[in-house]
Amino acid sequence: MRKFYLCFAFLLIQLSLQAQSRTxxxxxxxxxxxxxxxxxxxxxxxxxxxxxxxxxAYYEGKLDYKTDFCDEIDRIKTFIxxxxxxxxxxxxxxxxxxAITSYIVxxxxxxxxxxxxxxxETFSIDREPxxxxxxxxxxxTHKGQCHSLPWMYKILANELNAEAALAxxxxxxxxxxxxxxxxxxxxxINLELTTNQMNPSWWIKxxxxxxxxxxxxxxxMTPLTDLQTVAxxxxxxxxxxxEKFHRYDEFTYYCASKSLEFYPMNPNAWIIRGKSLERIIxxxxxxxxxxxxxxxxxxxxxxxxxxxxxxxxxxxxxTDEIRERRKQQAIEAQKIQEKSLSK
Length: 343
Hints:
four-stranded antiparallel β-sheet, alpha+beta
């Protein structure tokens, strides 16, 4: 029975929150429950809603789904449809993807003649305020980075029924869609929204120092399904929790574990699960007088399994050289954007 201690502990957290006035943690439990229903098929799968929930929880409910998310996305959708029609992009199989990209990177009346650009004001290769990656912020400021810009694109693509997927590189995300119009020599378009470039696969692999194994198993350079994308957002919910409360606990363990059920090749989720287990084991051993009983042994086996699974994602370890290269690329991207917008 002790094997189910974590489940009972998490249930007690939920019951305790329900019995009290709403707390900051309560928003995270609500977001977790709704995302879990999506993943389990008990509710409609919605990437837009999942992204909102993670941001809503961080802001403790001070974000409105309709006014801060849906209204602006609907307005953008309407403009992109007009852009698509005016430029006769229906003659291209990827015409809607072209329209979305054009709206994001070029000045139009529909975006106030202010394209969505990299947020260099808050750029930090080591750390930046967590909310700087939020789509809700990008919608308002037209500034974003390698998380919020591709996630915004993905939401718009789903709204417009355009085939496009998120993909990952080390500490980075971008958009992939099939090159049905044969624009490039490759099967897929790799769209980098921070610099408005279509990067060949060989360049991404070389620049991010990605090994073949990580590509083969699907850790990097692989288009995510919508189910995997929501699972990825579940891991981001746990990340936001640790950023807000500065701790790992049963909640982050269950977020990571639920995410990994549907997207097991996410190294970040395995990291969260491992750090959460470390804290749970430490707390249990303190309570138990550091006696390794059956339950402690069970937790340690979970830790070993987590480490093994993480190792087999073949995650690229970030080095000082890679960090410096990221910084220089961001500087070059800023110059390109400034030159483009000054024309």
